[in-house]
Every structure is written in C-alpha cells, then in structure tokens.
Write a structure and sequence with these properties.
Helix content: over 70%
Structural class: mainly alpha
Largest sheet: none
CATH class of the largest domain: Mainly Alpha
Distance between the termini: 42 Å
Order of helices and strands: HHHHHHHHHHHHHHHHHH
Strand content: under 5%
Number of domains: 2
C-alpha cells in the first residue's frame, strides 16, 4: 500500500468518526428549538419537554461507559458502525412518534446508540493517531466537528421546524448516518483490546438506576410534591445506588468504572469539571433556547436559531484555538480559561428579561460560546494523556459520561427551579445564577487542585540525561 493510499484511508477514517460525532451531538442541541412545537403537538408541559431532552442525555450518560468497553472488547469498527445504524433507526422512530411516550422512548434509544458512537469515535482517533502532539491537533479538529453540530443544531432545527415541522429534525440524521456507515465500512480498520475491556452488568444497572431515579425524583417533584413518598423514595434510591457503585466496582475483576484511574488527580478533576460544564452550559442552553428566546421573547424556531448564532458560531474558532493551546501548553490553560469565561457569562445572564436589548444578549452568548469551545476539547485530550493507549476507550467514555451526567442533572434541576417559580423570569435568572456558580466552582478546582505530571527529582536523573526545564 503506497503512502497516498494510506493517507486517503486515514482521512476517510476520520471523516467517518467526525460524521458520527456530528450526528450524535447534533441531537443534543437541535431538539431545543423544537421544544415549543413538540409541546403543542403532543400536548405536554415543561416536565414532558425535560424528559424529551433528558431521555437522550440519561441514556447517553448511563450507557457510555459500557459503550467504550464494547468497542475495546468486540472491535471498535464493528461496535461504532452498529451504533450508527441504531441511531438512524431511532431517529426514524422519533420522527414518526404519535405520543410523548413513544418520542421519549426513541430519544432513549438515540442516547443508547450515541453512547457507543461518541467514545467509539474518540477511541478510533486515539488508535489512529498514537503520537500525543499529533493527537492533540486532531482532537482540535474533532472538537470542530462537535462545534459544527452545536452551530448547525439551533439554526438547522429552526429552519426545519418552521418549514417541515418538528419530525424533520430527526430525519436529517438519516443521510448523515448512512454516509458515515458506508465510509466507515471501507476505511476503518478493525482493532480491539479484549483483555482490557469489561462488561459489568451489576455496575451498569446501578449507574442506570442512580441517574434515572435522581432525574425522576427531581423532574416529577413538581407533580408529586417534594414531601411525597414517590419523590423521597426516588431520591433515596438514587443515593443508595450511587453509594453501591464504588463498593461493587472494587469487587469486580474488570469493572465498568476502573476506580484506579481516579488516582491521577488530573483524571479526577477533569471528570468533575466535565460534570459541572454539562450541568451549567447544556442545562442553561435548554432554558435559553426553549424558554427565554421562544416563550419570553416570543421568537419563532428560526428566529431562535438565528439569535443563538453568536454563541454557536463562537464555539468553532474557540475549539480550534483550544486544540493548538493544548498541543503547545497542555490542557489546563484552555480549560481554565474556558470555565472562567463560561461561568462569568452565565452569571451575567441573570440580567436577562423579556426586554433586554439583543446586543447585550449577543455579547454574553459570544463569551459563553468561546468558553465552551475552549473547555470541551482539552478535557478529552487530558484524560487520554493519563491512561495507556489500550485504555483509550474507557477513558474517552468516562469524560463524556461525566459531561452527559451533568447535562441530565442540569436539565432536571435548572428546569425544576423554573417550574417551581411563580415568575418564570425570576426562575430563569435564579437557574442561570446557579449554573454560573457551579461553573466558576469548577474553574476554582482546576486552578487550585490541578497537578502537572510528576517529574523525577534532579538528583535522581542519570548524569547522561539533561534535567528538564
């Protein structure tokens, strides 16, 4: 095989991985601008809309650890392409859903498929580009693919909803998914590391139970009351399941979540920060697009997509800059900068009301978009740097799981704060203040507790080797 053929194969391999990432992440944002249309057509309330968003996020968060392990065990190509196929089928189910229950079921199936696609794409990149510096640059391009999904979601979703109706936002996945499958069948080589993979049914059930019970207790508390046995029972079950997870994982030979990975402070802090970013940025995005721009400011779906452009467009160049900063200085600098910008922007958004001048809104959207673009890509690169190559699947799955756990909690908690408030404007302002505070707390953790990779003391370095500066 000549050099040109190998280079073409590598490019096509990345195209398939990036396309799968684009499709999976598109559905994190595109549904938000369709929320009012779905609410009217399926006759639901804010809690129903929360489940449409959280059905996807919960399945993605709960199953992503298994998704990474499946690729490591049974073959990264096989599992990645199977996930793409399931996602296409689930998208058709969502588009044809006659009731809220069917739509939520389709969203859960989409999330389960995305739980295979996202870590699978990152693991394919890790296998294809083993050099850390080259991989950091490629991760910047992967971040651009995700940023393009963020950009396209609100704008494409608004256009489709206003012209073809909300089902079309799911049908758009069909050609993208099929193209990624065709390219991947040809270009992706098979690889696996079954000795390092794990399928842990007990741990998986506990993770699903903890997230589902917590989300149900928070979202449905408005209907049942915080003092009801259903709410208290759900929240208690979530706590018990969460406590049991590490106890079970310590006894499993090949656990779903290898606790040893968390001995590295960088790995632990990156995952905690990712939970915070998902909670604040993605939970806040749901409120801004579904509630603030459409219900409080009266924008149509298309107008909402255009209003969100300053935020979504700023993510793309910031992701590219993040990749370059990460390659040159490591992940901490772009992550810390991104978290500070995102947290400050969300906190400042507490001034928003129905009459806030749009230039003020646009400026804060830009700051938030730049912050997210700087924060997301280095987080994935950071965890890949802390593990050996054969653990790339589980490492990639862990950091993405953390962010999606945050997303599910953010949509549930921030949406419930709004629902519990008598004044929706005040409720939104309180929610955004909480989101900003959580993000800035994560920034403080990155600033204070992050430790650079350890180097041997100067006196232990052999005389023939220079001491690193």
């Amino acid at each position: 095989m000549d050099t040109r053929t190998r280079e073409t194969g590598s490019v096509l391999r990345l195209v398939s991985a990036f396309s799968g990432t684009f499709m999976a992440l598109l559905d994190l944002t595109i549904v938000n601008v369709a929320a009012p249309s779905i609410q009217a057509d399926l006759n639901t309330d804010l809690a129903g809309l929360q489940w449409v968003v959280d059905g996807f996020a919960l399945a993605l968060a709960a199953l992503m650890l298994s998704g990474g392990s499946l690729g490591d065990r049974y073959g990264r190509k096989r599992v990645f392409l199977s996930g793409l196929g399931v996602f296409v089928v689930a998208s058709v189910l969502c588009a044809l859903a006659p009731t809220l229950a069917v739509l939520v079921a389709g969203r859960c199936l989409q999330g389960a498929a995305a739980a295979v696609i996202v870590p699978g794409a990152l693991s394919l990149i890790g296998q294809a580009v083993p050099d850390p510096r080259d991989r950091a640059r490629v991760m910047g391009y992967w971040g651009m693919a995700g940023a393009l999904a963020v950009i396209a979601g609100p704008l494409l979703g608004g256009l489709l909803v206003d012209t073809l109706g909300w089902p079309s936002i799911f049908l758009v996945n069909v050609p993208v998914g099929l193209a990624a499958i065709v390219i991947g069948l040809r270009a992706i080589p098979e690889s696996a590391d079954p000795r390092h993979a794990a399928l842990d049914p007990a741990g998986q059930v506990l993770v699903i139970g903890a997230l589902a019970a917590l989300s149900y207790g928070v979202i449905e508390a408005r209907s049942h009351g915080w003092e009801s046995w259903i709410t208290i029972g759900s929240l208690t079950a979530a706590v018990l399941a969460a406590v049991l997870v590490p106890l079970v994982e310590r006894r499993v030979i090949r656990p779903l979540l290898p606790l040893g990975l968390f001995r590295d402070a960088r790995f632990t802090i990156t995952n905690l920060a990712s939970v915070a970013l998902g909670f604040a940025a993605n939970g806040g995005f749901f409120l801004l697009s579904a509630l603030y721009l459409q219900q409080l400011r009266g924008h149509s779906a298309m107008e909402t997509g255009l209003a969100l452009l300053p935020m979504t467009l700023s993510v793309l160049p910031a992701s590219l800059v993040a990749g370059r900063l990460n390659a040159a200085h490591g992940p901490r600098l772009p992550m810390l900068t991104g978290y500070v910008l995102t947290g400050a922007a969300l906190a400042a958004m507490t001034v928003f009301d129905a009459g806030t001048p749009y230039p003020v809104v646009a400026v804060l959207f830009v700051v938030a978009g730049v912050g997210q673009g700087l924060a997301i890509t280095p987080a994935a690169a950071a965890v890949l740097e802390t593990v050996p190559l054969e653990r790339s699947g589980i490492a990639a799955a862990t950091v993405n799981t953390a962010r999606q756990v945050g997303t599910a909690l953010g949509v549930a908690v921030l949406g419930t704060i709004v629902a519990e408030s008598r004044d929706p404007v005040h409720g939104m302002q309180v929610s955004l203040l909480v989101a900003g505070a959580v993000t800035l707390a994560a920034a403080a953790l990155l600033a204070v507790r992050w430790r650079a990779p350890e180097r041997p003391p100067a006196e232990q370095v052999p005389a023939s080797e220079p001491v690193a500066d």
